[in-house]
Amino acid sequence: MLRLRAVATTERLRLAAAGRFVHRRATKTRRPPPPPPTPPKPPQKPTPFTFHGVTWHDPYSWMSDLNDGVAMRHMDVCMEQEEKYTEAVMVASGADRLRRRLHIEMAPRLASDPCTPPVRWGPWLYYRRAEDEKQYPVLCRRSASLHDEFISYSEPSAGFDFQTGKRIEQKLVDYNQEAERFGGYSYEELSEVSPDHHFLAYTMYDKDKDSFTLSVKDLTTGSLCDKPRADRVANLSWAMNGKALLYTVTDSDKRPYRIFCSILGSNKDDVLILEEHNENAYINIRNTKDFQFVTVNIFSNFSSKVYLINAADPLSGMTLVWECEPHAHCIVEHHQGYLYLFTDAARGGEPVDSHYLLRHVAKDYDSGSNWESVLLEEPGVTIEDVDFCETHVVLILKEGKSFRICSVALPLSMGGNVPVHLSALQPCFLPLPEHVCQIAPGPNYDYHSSIMRFTISSPVMPDAVVDYNLLNGKWLIVQQLNMLQERTKTLYGTAAAASSIKQSSLPNNLGTNCQHHDADGMWHELSEFYACEYYDVPSNNEVLVPLTIVYSRKHKQEGSPGLLHGHGAYGELLDKRWRSELKSLLDRGWVIAYADVRGGGGGGKKWHHDGRRTKKQNSIIDYVSCAEFLVGEGIVQENKLAGWGYSAGGLLVASAINIRPDLFRAAVLKVPFLDVCSTLLYPILPLTRVEYEEFGYPVELEDFLAIRKYSPYDNIPKDVPYPAVLITSSFNTRFGVWEAAKWVAKVREQTIYDPQRPILLNLTADIIDGSKYLESKELALEAAFLIKMVSDS
């Protein structure tokens, strides 16, 4: 009986325990979800501002008062609250878990080569490489004559010279040590090796002075020279074959206004060559490729001037060789007795829409006469850039939406007849892949070498660093990421080409193709897997805006989400290069689109001018038109479109959202320019003439009214649903973090609160550009935010 009673008791306990377990499990499933995180609400302190008779109140102007200690303490608290809120939202939405998964996915693709492709200059190969477990790279060189047949583009430091008993590699600058010299954080802005390869002049950022400090290193001894040592240095140029250095310094507003000449090894003070007293004038210096001259560009509101300094005698004075209207682009080169000028200045008093090439006999140059045109205009063809070496000039051309690159032998064989058609110069058109969106000249320091380096970019191909031999047309891909194997493809030797190259389609009157094939090499294009399409989108019944879209042939489906990039400022090309992090979106069915709106580059000077200052609204209208096109044509599903903008592109996207908040589901704004009116009227960080020329001079009434109309901070709509937005900023950006903080606070205050569409501020580390790990972590955060806010909405 005792045993039966015990069994019965045990059974009752088991059933009771089971009941409690079932009860706990049922209770857990019925538990309501936790409330969404509450966004921070910084205090409002409305401050009145009046300008041109217009009065407005800014409730968050205290955030930018850097001289108010109490305000800055409040700002620190606000930034800490924003950081916690962003983390809480990411966790609550599941985006944090997705971010970690994306980070693991992206990191291998974003891992850069441990070494840059070596640049051959004279007897040396120069390159930068990473040091194990160190943040900053090391600048090195090695003799190009040692074991030339074993030179590797991925490991040029490998090898040992058994004749001298020394390593082949010579370390020039360890930037980890430089960072320590400047308090633990620094980065290089400029570095120039002297033409005799004996000295290296470079500038490092000093965070305490907020400027760049000049140092010169003796490459024979490895020690720093006693002089020159200077702060606030903006430009460098060598003279006297490396025995003298010219440099410019800036004033307190970061305006380059003085040129000094320092004679290396001399005890004498550096000589002041020029001081520009006009507060609206800016100075820039550079060497011609043959190091025979130093060119001095002086830009002001009244004119653009180019002077020459004889590099053999830098203290002999400056000679004016060119003068034109303000804000013109003017680059002077010298080649075998001729000066060449690449410019977009007005011709005969008439403005032009693109660049052209002039030349002049060097021995009797003057500023106004006898400059002769080199090339006749070709319909639909523009010259985007030029580069010179001793034997050739290379022209980067654009024909419609297509880029071309060709070489022309020097000296030019024009027989005294100028200008001529390009075909008369027998150009050799160099091979390119399809869908090229950008061609960037490489360093190309060696004037006497006929091998020139260019970086070829495409929306459906990782950047290819290519060496073109201009004498025989052979070409070599020296570095390109292979996305299919997710490793870097590196070629060795002296001859390689692409079997997959498509023959360039050229007008018969332009020239001939120079194609040299080798089945061992190929462009690592991804067009088999990712489609690239082009559209012309009508905008406001005025212009057709070029729109480029990229999508996965395998994963795109009906109702795809989309991401629309835009920039539209400074006449700069929109960055449409293949970006490895976007593969994670493409492979999830996203459409990536690029809107070449007015204000940006690629459409000539008029295209740029039609999207700046009082016409800045055109950029925003163009972007909205492209967004409407994507949704209206069914390329992107309604309510699944996101925007993306960096810096001035952040202004573009934020302004577009203000106009059509219903059109966008989300947006990512990276270090955006948002509080335009206050920043231009009351700059906290020094602004240059370029910023005012681009966004407007608020002291002028027409510009002021235009700024008030498009400024994102001043035009946030009231009582409407707003898309989810992720803003990334830091304390070391061109536009202060207070701009992002003010905009975030005002959007939350004025728009309808929706926890499913959060407004997040993410503060990044200042060193993110120097760390692939931190960069991939931030990119994974952006992608996770977009997927959760758009795809999973």
UniProtKB/TrEMBL annotation:
Q: Where does the Peptidase S9A N-terminal domain start and stop, copy by copy?
A: 43-478
**Any idea where the Peptidase S9 prolyl oligopeptidase catalytic domain is?**
580-750
**Among its keywords, does the record have Membrane?**
no
Highest taxon listed in the record's lineage: Eukaryota
Q: Where is the composition biased (Basic residues)?
A: 21-31
The UniProt entry, under Gene3D superfamilies, shows: alpha/beta hydrolase, Prolyl oligopeptidase, N-terminal domain
Q: Recall the GO molecular function terms of this protein's record.
A: serine-type endopeptidase activity
Composition bias type Pro residues, residue spans: 32-46
In this chain, the stretch annotated as Disordered covers 17-50
Write the record's keywords in alphabetical order, separated by commas. Hydrolase, Protease, Serine protease
Q: Read off the Pfam families from this record.
A: Peptidase_S9, Peptidase_S9_N
Recorded E.C. number(s)?
3.4.21.-
Recorded protein name is: Prolyl endopeptidase
Top enzyme class, one word, equals hydrolase
Any GO BP annotation: proteolysis
Membership in a protein family = Belongs to the peptidase S9A family.
Its biological purpose is as follows: Serine peptidase whose precise substrate specificity remains unclear. Does not cleave peptides after a arginine or lysine residue. Regulates trans-Golgi network morphology and sorting by regulating the membrane binding of the AP-1 complex. May play a role in the regulation of synaptic vesicle exocytosis.
